[in-house]
Design brief:
Layout (H helix, E strand, L loop, with lengths): L20 E6 L4 H11 L4 E7 L6 H5 L4 E4 L6 H10 L3 E4 L6 H12 L5 E4 L5 H14 L4 E8 L9 H16 L19 E3 L2 E7 L5 E9 L2 E9 L6 H10 L5 E4 L9
Helix pairs in contact: 1-7, 3-4, 5-6
The protein binds nicotinamide-adenine-dinucleotide and the ligand O=C(O)C1=N[C@H](C(=O)O)CCC1.
């Protein structure tokens, strides 16, 4: 598969006459990586200095003169990659899933020793998906019931998706701030876990189906009505404007940002 050229969107604009941002991509041969190689390679203000695969040491990014690391790998190795970046003063933009609260806390500790470094952990680079999660978090405090269904291609190795975990966290925070209790649920017998995973007190159901790409529904229910906030990504081009925005912004935001919404003016 060759990644198509990425159309530019209005979310991110290069600074005129600025030094190019020197990017090393980890996971460059993966599905996201191939799209990112095309997007970064096609951006006039970015310079793709290294395309690294699973056999390359992360130190090759330094050897290539990178200023920024783009991590699109697997949850098992992403924390070590980012720790290396932080330790060597490289800014990092991370799309890899699996960044639990515990992992983010460890990373914050590492960043404390390198306060000039910026890291963005983006569970989802799609602007539409970030907006859908934000809308859902705004709406969910008005409904007694809320559940999330995430649906992905069957090659995905992690469940639930990073996006679902992030959405559940946003919804849980908004409901807690508004004093809304748990969704009503009379289930007392569920030996096989049919009611899904509980993430921050929100039920999350994961579907893996050939033909799907990345889809999420937040179902909200109240007496006599239902609101569904749905987002669909049909191919990985959906993520590239957010990837470019992240790379262009991260150096100016030292410390840890969790979620692309940190770089979007959503209010
Ligand atoms: N944030 C987002 O918007 C977004 C969107 C899509 C996918 N993702 C996530 O990005 C990650 C990659 O997704 P994908 O669909 O490209 O997966 P993929 O399986 O196609 O690619 C993974 C890449 O990681 C590489 N890799 C594996 N082990 C490695 C190691 N030890 N060191 C370095 N590289 C290693 C593989 O060679 C491969 O190139 C996943 O965690 C996925 O959930 C995030
Ligand atoms: O295809 C994937 O894998 C995706 N992973 C991210 C997640 O776990 O939320 C983003 C959506 C696509």
């Amino acid at each position: 598969m060759t990644a198509p050229e990425t159309e530019s969107r209005t979310v991110s604009r290069p600074e005129p006459n600025a030094e190019p941002i020197r990017v090393a991509i980890l996971g460059a041969t993966g599905k996201m990586g191939r799209y990112a190689v095309a997007a970064v390679g096609g951006a006039p203000d970015l310079e793709l200095v290294a395309e690294l695969g699973s056999r390359d040491p992360v130190s090759a990014a330094l050897d290539a003169g990178a200023s920024h690391l783009l991590d699109l790998t697997v949850p098992q190795v992403s924390p070590d990659n980012v720790a290396f970046a932080v330790e060597h003063g490289l800014h990092a933009v991370v799309g890899t899933s699996g960044w639990s609260a515990e992992r983010r806390e460890t990373l914050s500790g590492q960043l404390a020793a390198h306060p000039e470094v910026g890291v963005l952990i983006a569970p989802n680079f799609s602007v539409g998906s970030v907006l859908a999660s934000a809308f859902a978090a705004k709406a969910a405090r008005h409904f007694p019931s809320v559940e999330i269904i995430e649906m992905h291609h069957p090659d995905k190795v992690d469940a639930p998706s990073g996006t679902a975990v992030r959405t559940a966290g946003l919804i849980a925070d908004a409901r807690q701030a508004a004093g809304v209790g748990a969704s009503p649920d009379a289930t007392t017998h569920d030996p096989d876990g049919s009611r899904g995973a509980l993430v921050d007190g929100i039920r999350v159901h994961a579907v893996r189906l050939r033909g799907l790409e990345a889809h999420q529904e937040v179902l909200m229910g109240g007496p006599g009505e239902q609101l569904v906030v749905r987002h669909d990504a049909f191919d990985r081009g959906a993520y590239m404007p957010g990837v470019l925005l992240g790379l262009r912004t991260v150096a100016s935001r030292p410390g840890l940002a969790y979620g692309l919404d940190a770089y979007l003016d959503l209010d």
